[in-house]
Design goal:
Length: about 500
């Protein structure tokens, strides 16, 4: 796909910001930063938009749905509520992924999502210097210098939307005998073979489900109990749609799902011998198979930033970040897209963010673009005032209809601050940033409770003291009822609204 303006935009040079990556994370932050009026260079090693979705997932079908939204009307939630792959944009630039889907169902293929991302870039007139690979980094006179084959880019702010597409393998002796997730090939090639899949997250069960009709035996192994989203009530675990292998295991269909760690893999007479340790007690289970597949996840593409002091965690797979997705060790380096999952949030009751997917990180980008514009360039976005009598309805409407709050449960909150001019809507913010902040303000979030119910939570902050107030759940997530209004009135009673 050619760039919209010129064949090779953003030549090497000095810019206020440099964005790296043209997957959905890069496209989203670029769109929102441009809307703030900030100039930047946008580079990508790829020949067109799409990022990792140009090649992954290996069996094409995505896990996140894109449902057509109902016709607008009273009480109807916005389009982003239904389309988890929709990038946030003004009406003139928005591209519904469901419009790109030719097959029935709600889960788009990676090709359909890639087409939607390309359409978004074209419709939004985003200019990107494609086939320009970031190869090195240094700091010179307080600015970052990004080295590329085309030349050097200098800036005081860098936004990395490079994703997590590098395969990660555990340090298991003999792991070199395993096939990587992206190398699995045609499932028909595993007909009548015994296959061990290491890893019980989405990629492990995705492969297992695809191999079930062909392989003679499928064993999925990983430490800890098997967790599916339908039983955890959150995104902690594998998507429930990948439950065929587990069901086959439970009813005795021939496959097996094991709580086991793999300590070594050896070759033996043309076969593979995997040494497993079952459960917490570590009872040995030697397993002879024809193939081992390492569906053990991915790691971040961080270039040479570790040599500049970039701190990482999760066995060096994720960059340590502030609540606003800035490097915790190299100020001025920001992360966008799926890399924002490294800002963990509160994880109340073990519930993580959805920042690893478009559904979640698109809202992170909204906040991040505003934060970068304000902190680094003095661009303060307009804030709307809320009349005190309207506050109750505003908060309950946000809890009921905000796709950002529902998508990022317990991670993002809608904030109203007490300013000299009155109650000011401060937009979405990371909940951790609000709780660590100062001054009179309140926030509403949607959270998963200890009993896995979904409920609104209101936080009141005075100076540095914060109180937490839980509203009743509702089976249809409708919190604009008289009962919820009475609950909120009781919570707000005595809190200074002026």
């Amino acid at each position: 796909m050619a760039d919209v303006v010129g064949a090779r935009p953003h030549p090497p040079g000095e810019y206020p910001i440099v964005i790296v990556g043209s997957g959905p994370g890069g496209l989203q932050i670029a769109y929102l930063l441009r809307r703030s009026g900030i100039t930047f260079a946008h580079i990508s090693r790829d020949p067109e938009p799409g990022g990792m979705f140009r090649t992954l997932p290996v069996f094409d079908r995505l896990l996140s749905w894109s449902k057509p939204a109902p016709a607008p009307g009273p009480g109807v939630r916005g389009e982003a509520w239904y389309d988890w792959n929709l990038l946030l944009a003004d009406d003139a630039h928005r591209v519904a992924v469901s419009d790109m889907m030719s097959s029935p169902g709600i889960f788009p293929s990676r090709q359909e999502l890639s087409r939607a991302l390309a359409a978004f870039a074209e419709r939004s007139r985003l200019t990107i210097r494609y086939q320009c690979e970031w190869t090195g980094t240094r700091i010179d006179q307080g600015k970052f210098v990004l080295e590329t084959a085309d030349g050097e880019y200098r800036s005081k702010v860098v936004v990395l939307a490079t994703g997590m597409s590098l395969p990660w393998f555990p340090k298991v002796p003999g792991i070199e005998h395993a096939i990587g997730y992206a190398e699995i090939g045609d499932p028909n090639g595993y007909r009548n073979r015994r296959v061990l899949i290491i890893g019980k997250e989405n990629s492990g069960f995705e492969i297992a489900d695809e191999l079930l009709p062909y392989a003679g035996q499928v064993v999925v192994a990983g430490p800890g109990p098997t967790r599916f989203t339908i039983t955890t009530g959150s995104f902690a675990g594998s998507r429930a749609r990948f439950d065929q292998t587990y069901e086959d295991h439970v009813v005795g269909g021939g496959s097996a799902v094991l709580d086991a760690s793999i300590t070594s893999i050896q070759t033996k007479s043309g076969e593979l011998l995997a040494d497993l340790r079952l459960g917490e007690i570590g009872r040995p289970l030697p397993l002879v198979v024809d193939d081992v597949v390492a569906a053990t996840g991915f790691t971040s593409e961080l270039g040479d930033l570790r040599s500049l002091g970039l701190q990482t965690f999760a066995r060096d797979r994720l960059p340590a970040q502030t609540p606003f997705w800035e490097s915790a060790s190299i100020p001025g380096i920001y992360f966008a897209g799926t890399l924002t999952q490294a800002a963990r949030g509160l994880r109340k009751h073990g519930v993580p963010s959805t920042s690893a997917s478009i559904q979640g990180f698109r809202y992170n980008a909204q906040i991040q673009a505003r934060h970068i514009a304000e902190q680094h360039f003095g661009v303060t976005p307009p804030r709307s005032l809320i009349d005190p009598p309207q506050l109750r309805g505003f908060l309950l409407r946000a809890a009921s209809r905000s796709a950002g709050l529902m998508s990022q449960k317990g991670y993002l909150a809608r904030v109203v601050a007490m300013k000299e001019g009155g109650l000011t809507h401060s937009g979405l913010q990371p909940l951790t940033a609000f709780l660590d902040g100062e001054g009179s303000a309140l926030a509403v979030a949607v959270e998963v409770g200890s009993d896995r119910s979904i409920q609104p939570v209101v936080y009141l902050r005075q100076a540095t003291r914060v109180s937490e107030h839980i509203l009743d759940p509702h089976p249809l997530h409708d919190y604009e009822s008289d009962d919820h209004a009475r609950q909120l009135d009781s919570i707000l009673a005595g809190w200074p609204l002026r």
